[in-house]
Fold each of these.
Amino acid sequence: MNFTLTEEQEMIRQAARDFAHTELLPGVIERDETQQFPSEQVKKMGELGFMGMMVDPEYGGSGLDTLSYVLTMEELSKVDASSSVIVSVNNSLVCWGLETFGSEEQKEKYLKKLASGEIIGAFCLSEPEAGSDATSQKTTAIDKGDHYVLNGTKNWITNGSSASVYLVIAQTHIEKGYKGINALIVEKGMPGFEIGPKENKLGIRGSDTHSLIFNDVKIPKENRIGGDGFGFKFAMKTLAGGRIGIAAQALGIAAGAYELAKNYSKERRAFGTEISNHQAIAFKLADMHTQIEAARYLVYKAAWDKDQDNDYDISGAMAKLYASQVAMETTVEAVQIFGGNGFVKEYHVERMMRDAKITQIYEGTSEIQKIVISRSILKK
């Protein structure tokens, strides 16, 4: 086992860290407070190659490995999880799905702009009655010969109003169940496509989350990804990789909160000494550090599996399950170490605690991850 990062990976991590502190940190509290989408920051991340990190340079991407992407996600998430989830969705769910399963025409038309950050994308699977149960799609795409007619509603869509391209999962052949589901590329501005109000969320408030409404939207046949009925498999394959990105986000949130808490404990004095000298605080930091390191190597292992073309379903699920748990526990303890100040926005950790919770929910809840893991281990 070799746990040493390459020189290139170290440079990428440092570049992401520098960007997070110089570009994301200023204004992060205000963006959270006002639910402001980080438009300028996203544009700059596109210029740095963060929006299409694993995409072949032929299609405008950076051509990097999954581990480099995970390192970037970790560093961005230490500072601003709202910005990092925008990167995650565009990379893991949109660009990867298009590059892996899209036609050459689709890659030329959409992937190049997405990978370069010229535009951003959204992945549309969840519905009012189809969150964890992704097979219960009520959105329909009726086959009309040379096009589909799309009707339905999608919920909790990241980049909902900021995206230009939407990958929409819809049911075409109801009688076939999940084998009758298709994945369609929908463009903003298509007649009948409406964007609902922005959700007022607990965390990742700088990320714009919306419901999407489709009323008789005409989608050309050439906008279908893969063969007829491939949509559910497309969604599951794409989400398996997406979990690695969210696991890295959870890891970054935890690591960022821990670093703030550790530094604060060396400055804050109580009972005549820095609070880091009190065993009650020192032991909290020891537990936090140990759990974060364990989560880090689960996340890195999942990324390595993906890069080695190994089956990464179980490693990705374990990484997301554990890293999200560590993010939640670490941020709660960070608030505790800050005491009263932890409840105040200017110290950042209360925002991190709010941001951490969603990592246990989106791109597969913790309960869904346990289903994936248990099914995998019980097959052996």
Amino acid sequence: MQSLRKYRRITVKIGSALLVDRTTGLKREWLASLAQDVGTLAAGGAEVLVVSSGAIALGRTILGLGKRALKLEESQAAAAVGQIALAGAWSDALGGHGLKSGQILLTLGDTEERRRYLNARATISTLLKMKAVPVINENDTVATSEIRYGDNDRLAARVATMMGADLLVLLSDIDGLYTAPPARDPNAQFIPVVERITPDIEAMAGAAASELSRGGMRTKLDAGKIANAAGTAMVITAGTRLSPLMAIERGERATFFKPSPTPVKGYKTWIAGQLEPAGRLTVDAGAIGALMSGKSLLPAGVKLVSGNFARGDTVAILSPEGREIARGLVAYDAADAVRIAGLKTAEIETVLGYEARSAMIHRDDLVVSHAGVQGGAGAQGGE
């Protein structure tokens, strides 16, 4: 594992189970040790962003809700109580090392919608310029879909790429990636370095091991794909020990995911990092070849349209086998996309009744995944 000291901007994600004990509440000694690590990195010139889970888990203990399953409104109430306690705990812990902190609460839409994405980035950038540590969490008091389906692994990756971090550290209850979930397979082998997240690597992922945590290894690999594609390295390691960041520095076990040698930048980072595509376009082998050679996606290559999307939404582009090969901003509403799928450019106007764009997704609004590049097929024409 490389030294953390070589990185200038580091995003650190902390899972709920690391911060909150189901019985006693906040793990203050652990938080103090992590704050000391952040202080050490900051003293060395690094900017550190924290993505902290734990609001619902902490609020649950404060409100005495026990271990039972919570209704949605109870989860949101627990988050409201937990957020204020969590923010105060972070402020105290970081303040003990001379660091200021600021709380940022995000919903999925804040990183998916372009204008809100830019606003969030500007706010966090200003905090960093002011030498404050941004402490970021999902806004679980209002974001109902995140409470039921979300995870902070992918949120952390989205924040890391949005802010141009060169390293993302996922602190978890497991010390890295194994060939199989080690809790179930005693023969599972530890993997110290991942060159690229391939389908074989993804097949190694298991489910979440903790009832407090909503993300398993699968979401961590999803986070890795987002981060690595934008040129951000990623580390997965155990956060259960005290001073977990300095444990990485000491060479204790961790899996290092290398960033892409040809990262996506700027506007296309936002497209590539979209967490929830509004729809999917299944394309033929010829279209795959055109995309791999840097061309636009034409309607002629689209074989199947799914989802209820509007013009300008992000859609995933799938191979005939169902593997995602690219993402892009679609030029048509779903209803029109269905009508022109498979048609040649000259036929579009006759079907739609108006002169329309020749590309279903223009190459300037399209990002090919690095996994997709490896599986490209023969070429066809395009813009």
Amino acid sequence: MNDLPKQFESFTEARRNGFLAAKKIKDDGKKMVGVFCCFTPTELILAAGAVPVGVCGVSEEPIKDAEKVLPRNLCPLIKSSYGHVITDTCPYFYFSDLLVGETTCDGKKKMYEELSKIKPMHIMQLPNRATGKNEFNLWKDEVILLKEVLEKELGVTITEEDIKAAIKDKNEERALLNEYFELAKLEPSALTSLELYQVSYQAQFKFNRDELKASLRKIIDDTKDRYERGECPVKKDAPRILITGSPIGGCVNKIVKTLEDSGASVVAYELCSSIRSNRELIDEENPDVYEAIAKRYLNIGCACMMNNQKRIDLLDELIDEYKVDGVIDIALQSCHPFNVESHKIKEFVTGQKNIDYMAIETDYSETDTEQLRTRFEAFIEMIEDKR
């Protein structure tokens, strides 16, 4: 096929489908913008008539190629992302017309320098803390600058009416995702741990906006019907776990599946692709669309921020709302912000919320799966013994 890398035929079905979906977008005359983080205001990309898509790597496969340029003792997400780029194995990067990154961590910032040699790249300068007038003004200026860059790079004009329509569209999506997440508040949860994770993660790869929202509505209604029929897939007494920390897209099976196998029910993911980035909507009544966007995105409680009280506040709410029995805090290897912040999270969870806590540092390999299984089983048993 035209405009596909030479190794296309050897890809797995999922990756082949990804390439074909991305290619169809380009064949239909649309632009695609690759994003790396939930701090990117995707409303502006939608307002530009383009398709935003996540390009963070979630596979161990290309890491060995990335290590020819990047150091081995670097976050696996960064190495996987870069490795997919230089091996032409990420369909969404391959077809992206522009990449947008943010200054969230030093590893990503240096990777962006290498990526800019391959694709047009715009970096949003994220402030080091989320509080303060100067910090907010800096971020609002960055939001406006992104709008101007999108106009220039994509050859479009973005009006405030376009932005308002995109804000409404994304708010509708987030509201549906939040309604889906809240099905796990039921006792027992109406969702398996994997169901809860996969829907929020895979939503970013459904490119037709109306079809995405319709599919979310259907899965919510279908899940409610299943629950009301008494066909709950979760054991009534399964310990209720909240997962927080680094993105886990590259290690979902060995963490989430192994936790389920150990008898747990994950009822909340305080992660970039889940509650952390979807809980708060943008104020549609604010006449200043750039201020509204800036306020909402600066409220994301990421460990890259100094004095990250927003993450603590969110965990405080979630532990109560979802009746959490234990918190598992996951940090990818060499992810210094989340690794350092784990001490603060532990003090809060065990000291103020008085529930059990476990910290894990891992990578994208499967080598520690059985070690994790042993730790998970002991953690679940400890929770059950306290009942």
Amino acid sequence: MSNGHFVTPERTDLIPLPKGSELFVLPGRLPVAFDPETSEPLLLEDNPFEPGAPIQAVAAFMAPAHTSILTAAFQTADSAPTLPLFAYTAVGWSKGRFWVAAFRSDPDKRQDSDQFTPSAVDTRTRRKLKQHPDNRLIQHLGKCCLVYGCPAARNYFLGRWEAPIPTSPSCNARCVGCISLQSSGCCPSTQERITFVPSPKEISTMAVEHLDQAPKPIVSFGQGCEGEPLLQADTIAAAIRLIRQETGKGTINLNSNSSLPQALEKLVDAGLDSLRVSLNSAQEHYYTGYYRPNGYAFADVLRSIRLMKSAGRFVSLNYFILPGLSDSAPEFEALCTLVASCRPDMIQLRNLNMDPEWYLRTIGLPRSETAMGMRPWLKALKKEFPTLRFGYFNPFLTTQE
């Protein structure tokens, strides 16, 4: 599907299901297929392989570094529950394997499933936790690693690449699809939010060791297990200064809703290297409908991007992809306007983790909106902005960048 419309995928839209992906059944939802002769949508109410048996639609939750082209096709019953906070990519079966409508959006293997050996992750995590029993931040990351399987936390304990630094138990947005805090009675959060603010010393102890020893090291404030890190700008600024007193290595990054330009300025002055700005849409009304800002506006987000760029720092857009909205003509035009005026360096193509029907109802996207298709959308963006980078992960910045 794309914006609720059934779409026949092109053969070039399909890739083998990436290793490390997960398969879901979708309760209360019947699958929609296509008549092989007419290509008309066909609702499957009975199991064609086992007559009389119940049947449910299915979807794939893809491994990191892959971006969806189409969401799963289904028809939802009135009594169906809201789907949990994952992405729901169209998946099928052919020639003895699963296929998904998607493409690999970043060649970086830092979160590929074959990069993790469970026994090594467990051993090294428990060893580091014993080495730092009083560091609350490291202890929190141990839970992220061992309980939730967070790839960033696992890489931290394995001593490589990008390490997460959650700091903020509070937020100034009420994102409908927040993965760390949901109101009672809604779909459950996929992870618990941090309940304390680590001290600058706790942060620097963890970060300096990582930046000094890891290959292509990055430390990133702003994680899925927290609120908005800019609300802890004073703590983070102090931590960055402590880090840079000890080491000049690596990249210090902030993942943020970028809502508070004055707070961001403190981090720029302290030595922040890069900023990743979360966006579900470049259109203000869709942005506001999803983020539900508290005390800031979309214009503040744009000011933060310009502030970071005026300081000569690197900016990525953490752009939540949902086929049907992301590749619609008005959204493409709005995104082009934003890129032309704010000049970010990169767009990270992240799949929106939310029930697609719930999301589209929330933001009020008209069913009449037509989509260009994700592949043509990406091709057109690359043509319009030939120096703009695309990927999935925060890049390690060398001095040349």
